[in-house]
Amino acid sequence: MRIGIVDVDGHNFSNLALMKLTTYHKQRGDEVEWAFPLLPYDRVYMAKVFTFTQDDITAYQTYDIVRGGTGYDLQSKLPADVENCYPDYSIYGITDTAYGYLTRGCPRGCPFCIVAEKEGKQSKKVANLENFWRGQKYIKLLDPNLLACPDWEELMQQLIDSKAWVDFTQGLDIRLMTAEKAAMIRQCKVKKLHFAWDNPEDELTFEKLKEYRKAFSLPDEKCKVYVLTNFNSTHEQDLARVYRLRAIGYDPFVMVYEKWNAPKETRRLQRWCNNKIIFRAEPEFAKYH
Ligand code: SF4
Predict the structure, then answer these.
(1) 195-227 per-position pLDDT tens digit
(2) What pLDDT sits at residue 76?
(3) Which of 21, 29, 133, 141 is least surrounded by Cβ atoms within 10 Å, i.e. has the fewest?
(4) How many A from CA of 267 to the centre of ligand 1?
(5) What pLDDT score does 127 carry?
């Protein structure tokens, strides 16, 4: 078969599903390539992760188009024999980084997040590291909430044993931090960590961040905390979280929910806080122009 693949979101982020589909078809002896509009294919896979990405309306030359990804349908899933394939990183020219999920699902069910609906409200182990890592220098983990998984210890040990640089791209849930978990995170090779403080009413997050700050031997700028704004919080609450996080040794990073719909003050706050040259030069938001 001749298979065409389309990354509808563009090539800024590598699409794991397309990498796995490529391996799956190559193992069956099929030809796989980025789809060209004028060439005939037995099947074309179109993958779209982001809902805000415009669909690709190109008329691909095939009778069999398979569309998938959260950008099309929250419930779409790869068949198990594709899901278990080692990703073909070569389609994006990636040589030194492995991408993947060790777990899926999250018990939190935050109202602005699709994970619970898409993957379920339990964090479950879905793979071992060897399913997507073969000695690469860097590992980018896509797990939504690894610390909520009952198998966190075994999985953390796999990451430690890899001796690769690990990036917990979706952050770690500080509310689930314990001394044992922090000790294992310390043994991982990490360049930076990030957490989130989404709900300003949630003092537990702040207390846990304070309690564990010294457990990670990283400088302030390597311990980032995402501050969700424009979603159930006032400007005063947003600013207070930024100041309080900075005071206890974290690097706050303002995330704006539905930015197109955000007040000017929130966008100014984001510019001030996230540009670290400005943030250090002018520590008071009221004086930032
Ligand atoms: S903790 Fe993170 S992954 Fe889990 S529901 Fe909330 S935002 Fe989503």
Answers:
(1) 999 999 999 999 999 999 999 889 999 999 999
(2) 83
(3) 29
(4) 23
(5) 96
Question: Which of 207, 181, 202 lies closest to 193, judged by CA?
Answer: 181
At which residue do the structure tokens 């009221």 appear? 286
**Separation of 121 CA from ligand 1 center, angstroms?**
10
Nearest CA to ligand 1 atom 3: 144
User: Which atom of ligand 1 is closest in space to residue 107's alpha carbon?
Assistant: 4
| Nearest alpha carbon, ligand 1 atom 2 | 144
* Domain segments of the chain as ranges: 1-85, 96-190, 192-289
Average pLDDT over residues 10-23: 92
Cβ < 6 A, ligand 1 pocket:
106, 108-110, 113, 115-116, 144-145, 173
| Nearest-CA residue for atom 6 of ligand 1 | 110
Query: How many angstroms does the Cα of residue 170 sit away from the middle of ligand 1?
Result: 9
Q: Which CATH class is domain 96-190?
A: alpha beta
What tens digit of pLDDT does each residue of 28-72 get?
999 999 999 999 999 999 999 988 889 999 999 999 999 999 899
What is the atom index within ligand 1 of the atom nearest the CA of 144?
3
Q: Quick count: other Cβ atoms within 10 Å of Cβ 244?
A: 18
